[in-house]
Write a structure and sequence with these properties.
alpha+beta, globular, D-amino Acid Aminotransferase, Chain A, domain 1, Helix Hairpins, 24 helices, five-stranded mixed beta sheet, about 650 residues
Amino acid sequence: MEKNTAEKRAAELTALLDKYTYQYYVLDDPEVSDYEFDMLMQELKAIEAEFPELVTPTSPTQRVGGIASGKFEKVTHAVQMASLQDVFSLEQVDEFLTRCRTELSSPDYSVEPKIDGLSVSLEYTDGVLTRGSTRGDGFVGEDVTANIRTIRSIPLKLTDAPEFLEVRGEVYMPRSSFMELVEQQELNDEQPFKNPRNAAAGSLRQKDPKITAGRKLDMFIFNVQQVRGKEFRTHSESLDYLRSLGFKTVPTYKVCHEYDEIVDEIKRIGDDRAGLAFDIDGVVIKVNDLSQRDIMGSTAKTPKWAVAYKYPPEEKETKLLDIEVNVGRTGAITPTAVFEPILLAGTSVSRAVLHNQDFIDEKDIRIGDTIVVRKAGEIIPEVLRSVKHSEGSEPFRLPTVCPVCGTPSVREDGESVLRCPNVECPAQLLKNMIHFASKNAMNIDGLGEANMKLLVESGIVSSPADLYTLRKEQLLSLERFGDKSAENLVKAIDASKNAGLDRLIHALGIRNIGQRAAVLLCERFGSMDKLIAAERDEIADIEGFGEIMAESVVTALREPHRLELIEKLRQAGVNMEYKKETSGDDRFAGLTFVLTGTLPTMKRDDAKKLIESFGGKVSGSVSKKTSFVVAGEDAGSKLTKAQELGVEILSEADLIERTK
């Protein structure tokens, strides 16, 4: 393809992908299927791979880019991101309205749901997203631009935008995404986030944007912080304008005049909140006229022209009927409260995780107690406290042996979790098998929890390696499988042999090692054999790792049962080598590059992939063995050292030119 043709087609694809992204993530009304969208994205990626100079910061392919930052730069907000005064009763709402009427002539108010998330500022210069930052203390926040770019509902480029625009909004995690994340954390025996707000905050501040991208965050915009080239008379007018630019604005707002109207809207939003796809924790009431806001002014911390009415948390008493004890994938023995069903946040609940023995002891929870339960973040049931012991009750103790296999339980130093150390425990087997086949691991289509449970309980498989010896005839003997489904599963299992070494490492279920850590291990060692032979210090030396993660890897890959599994998988034909994408051209073979500073259009990770696709190696430090240093703006000590050693310095344009 000629460059002119490629440039034209890239522009067409960018326009289409931006349109379809807006329809899907903002309007919730997709025009094309996921497959069609993915095919267009792959076409654009192929063009940009062939012509790297066509890659722009606003390209749809750049939603997830960059490398782990290691830190977040401080951002001083030009306009304070103030917090709101909270009120907790309708009487306090009336007092606020009275103050407004005292100072203003016939004010109107915008009444909006208060999204329970993380407050963030977005800055656009000439329509291009240039920075995203957290609220921080209202005056100084943190630069999270790379992570913000992964949120699909946020436009990277605005059409017909003013010269400069800063907007404020709330980054949140939809309830469905939160439940998926918690389910995965529980499967991995990790401490799950307590509510979507904490999950959103933790996800936005990940040092690796790829992890943030996988958390499926979203954002509602609710305010114009500053703008050049446009004026507004009212807040509601500014919201309508932001929506016309393509922003996903706060879902509903109503302009009200009287107290009764506002109370009705507060009650309506409260009645509807259980059915929303996201969490709200109250209602914001703001003076709508912007000039009237100036009249009322602000205190040092909060504006006087707005309040946030907070809904009271819904807590209910119930009777604790039992404490069930379950065994997780890594042997964690977890207690679960089983209580008389109660209605919370619109749904019936009867179970809540009690975490560990320390949690139970701290709250002195006993079977038969009257307990108080609420839904953390309106989603996850949690036991707050015990308010009354039943007559003759005794403190509850977790079992000293595994409730499934009878092996004596252990509590390792520094841990609050009790574990079953028996790797052949049936409970661990099933959950390990489910994890092995899961989407984020070997991704075996058609082998979900129900089918895996059937295979394990029927005795057909007792190890992940057994999956690769499954025959169609064996599956047909089970009631859930027909001719076509059995054939498809066998094919899916066979295809998973080439899933990738990083997926296999993740699938092995090594404690503290998730998807990203598995990729880093592959990039460092390149093969399963080299990883098995690696020393603890070598692993701990990987950026993003530490002593605990390194210890987990070394311990796991010295265990006889796991080494036996790896060998069986090898014999079955499962890939044990890390295969990087290459261009088929090894012109950089034997050359070592160092990247430093901020490149004009490329993220460091993209530049690294480009170099590696031509057979080159990227190092983190400059030495006499360094072939080239690719330097961008604000290059520091690495550039100085390269100049001292006489290493050739390249610009981004020089690098791209050498790949043509």
